[in-house]
């Protein structure tokens, strides 16, 4: 009966593929060894071939794999439409490649002491990531690809929902066999409905879009029902995570939609302690900053160049913040900064938007990162990657990837109530440990961890997410899976 339901998948060829897999599974343990012995002779040869290709031409490898597909719908850029007769061969190629690649990852990681250190405490992380397999759902374009018609969709503040999806599509942890997947990634872009009035992302439709995606995958595939979504991964990259609202009180009142409560949410929102909008299995991720924009800025002015601005902030600073249902923007912290330091020569404070603001960050010693409506801001990432010491003014903020990025060593934290003493605090640091902080900030490992690349790079933000997911994997489950193979 499951096969019947599977047949209803939207893409015909995928439906067929999944059905094939299902039949294979139903044949149980007899299917696999037979398949293995059949292709064992080819295996060595294919392993050799794929290693060669892997070394000498990643491009060729992709092309080779693609040419074995019998694919009349070539814009579906993947191997799901593989002609069934080539299925096993192709799977051997791709799995040997992924095994090799993760070994390579482990070896190079072990030989790089800088990388080894942050992961040292988490015994087994690396061997887990070797086994990590993620199935990426293919959803109709209205859930994701259509939104890319607006170029901003893939490079604005919330674009990690796009970047993580892209990185997974070409990554070694991706599996095309949902039955061997540890996690299921549901690629829905909810942040790209930009308001025609102010250009901000309107996320009012997020809940219904996600709910309809869950409806679709839970009726077309058996995996959602199997786990009630607990091995399914979503990105919620805006202000208050899976609560999908920019105002905290409304976000809390709305709460996390029931259908997401058992899933894993990759979210930028994080605070210490309990909060209704992080009361879900989650991985804290950095806000999206385009690696290209950073590269361009650093080509014009290197991070180790002259810094003639002592303290920098550009952004919304209301002189008289409005009382919005009992709350004030930035809890009036930005107002206090503006009032106290607006006329201070050492503070370069700007209230208007300026597209070239990264060139100002790279000229600054301290970059203020006060809360907005939510505690986090893109300044956290931009400061670090451009070598400006982030001054975090957001009580109780929880910061991304604390194992990889030792925030206390590369940033300053100033309590919201101490914002009036900011000048004194910064002067004191400048006279004492500024050089030490700046030195820590130059660590390339730290900067790499905060940027999402279109293709996963070792140690980058998506890599950190995968590492966090690997830790979440139930180890005994992994072990039992391995022992039955
Ligand atoms: C985009 O947001 C507007 C409100 O700002 C809403 O009316 C519209 O339905 C949304 N579009 C989609 C496709 O959800
Ligand atoms: C999953 O459960 C829902 C609700 O119980 C049901 O409508 C749907 O058909 C189920 N999906 C599968 C693939 O069995
Ligand atoms: C803010 O407005 C609310 C009503 O929306 C009111 O109860 C509260 O006293 C106001 N707070 C301040 C500090 O003005
Ligand atoms: C630098 O000094 C400040 C103020 O004394 C202190 O809060 C901070 O932890 C120090 N940072 C480092 C990395 O030493
Ligand atoms: C881990 O997996 C085992 C075997 O599948 C299961 O019995 C156990 O309850 C799981 N533990 C957790 C914390 O999910």
From TrEMBL:
<keyword id="KW-0812">Transmembrane</keyword>
<dbReference type="GO" id="GO:0010417">
    <property type="term" value="P:glucuronoxylan biosynthetic process"/>
</dbReference>
<dbReference type="Pfam" id="PF03016">
    <property type="entry name" value="Exostosin_GT47"/>
</dbReference>
<dbReference type="GO" id="GO:0016757">
    <property type="term" value="F:glycosyltransferase activity"/>
</dbReference>
<keyword id="KW-0735">Signal-anchor</keyword>
<keyword id="KW-0328">Glycosyltransferase</keyword>
<protein>
    <recommendedName>
        <fullName>Exostosin GT47 domain-containing protein</fullName>
    </recommendedName>
</protein>
<keyword id="KW-0333">Golgi apparatus</keyword>
<comment type="similarity">
    <text>Belongs to the glycosyltransferase 47 family.</text>
</comment>
<keyword id="KW-1133">Transmembrane helix</keyword>
<dbReference type="GO" id="GO:0000139">
    <property type="term" value="C:Golgi membrane"/>
</dbReference>
<dbReference type="InterPro" id="IPR040911">
    <property type="entry name" value="Exostosin_GT47"/>
</dbReference>
<keyword id="KW-0472">Membrane</keyword>
<feature type="transmembrane region" description="Helical">
    <location>
        <begin position="42"/>
        <end position="61"/>
    </location>
</feature>
<dbReference type="InterPro" id="IPR004263">
    <property type="entry name" value="Exostosin"/>
</dbReference>
<keyword id="KW-0808">Transferase</keyword>
<feature type="domain" description="Exostosin GT47">
    <location>
        <begin position="130"/>
        <end position="428"/>
    </location>
</feature>
């Amino acid at each position: 009966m499951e096969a019947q339901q599977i047949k209803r998948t939207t893409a015909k060829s995928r439906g067929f593929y999944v059905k094939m897999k299902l039949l294979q599974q139903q044949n149980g343990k007899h299917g696999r060894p037979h398949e293995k012995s059949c292709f064992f002779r080819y295996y060595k040869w294919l392993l050799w071939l794929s290693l060669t290709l892997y070394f000498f031409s990643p491009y060729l490898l992709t092309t080779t794999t693609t040419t074995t597909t019998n694919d009349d719908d070539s814009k579906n850029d993947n191997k799901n439409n593989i002609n069934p007769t080539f299925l096993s061969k192709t799977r051997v190629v791709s799995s040997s490649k992924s095994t090799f690649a993760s070994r390579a990852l482990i070896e190079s990681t072990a030989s790089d002491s800088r990388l080894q250190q942050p992961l040292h405490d988490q015994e087994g992380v690396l061997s887990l990531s070797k086994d990590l397999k993620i199935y990426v759902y293919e959803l109709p374009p209205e859930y994701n690809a259509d939104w890319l018609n607006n170029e901003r969709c893939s490079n604005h503040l919330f674009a990690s929902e796009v970047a993580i999806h892209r990185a997974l599509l070409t990554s070694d942890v991706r599996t095309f066999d949902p039955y061997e997947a540890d996690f299921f990634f549901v690629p829905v872009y909810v942040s790209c409905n930009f308001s025609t009035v102010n250009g901000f992302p309107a996320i009012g439709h997020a809940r219904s879009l996600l709910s309809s995606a869950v409806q679709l995958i839970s009726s077309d595939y058996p995996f959602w029902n199997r786990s009630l979504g607990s091995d399914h991964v979503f990105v919620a990259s805006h202000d208050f995570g899976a609560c999908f609202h920019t105002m905290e009180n409304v976000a809390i009142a709305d709460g996390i939609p029931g259908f997401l409560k058992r899933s894993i949410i990759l979210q930028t929102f994080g605070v210490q302690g309990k909060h209704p909008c992080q009361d879900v299995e989650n991985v804290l991720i950095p806000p999206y900053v385009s690696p290209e924009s950073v590269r361009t800025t650093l080509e014009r002015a290197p991070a180790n160049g002259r810094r003639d601005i002592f303290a920098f902030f550009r952004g919304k600073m209301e002189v008289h913040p409005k009382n919005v249902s009992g709350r004030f923007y930035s809890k009036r912290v930005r107002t206090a900064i503006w009032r106290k330091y607006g006329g201070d020569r050492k503070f370069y404070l700007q209230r208007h938007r300026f597209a070239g603001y990264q060139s100002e960050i790279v000229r600054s010693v301290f970059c203020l990162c006060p809360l907005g409506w939510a505690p986090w801001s893109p300044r956290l990432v931009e400061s670090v990657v451009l070598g400006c010491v982030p001054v975090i003014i957001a009580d109780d903020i929880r910061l991304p990837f604390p194992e990889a990025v030792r925030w206390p060593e590369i940033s300053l934290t100033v309590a919201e109530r101490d914002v009036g003493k900011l000048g004194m605090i910064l002067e004191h640091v400048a006279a004492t440990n500024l050089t030490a902080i700046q030195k820590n900030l130059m660590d390339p490992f730290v900067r790499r961890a905060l940027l999402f690349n279109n293709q996963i790079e070792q140690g980058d933000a998506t890599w950190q997410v995968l590492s966090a997911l690997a830790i979440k994997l139930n180890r005994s489950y992994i072990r039992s899976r391995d022992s039955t193979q």
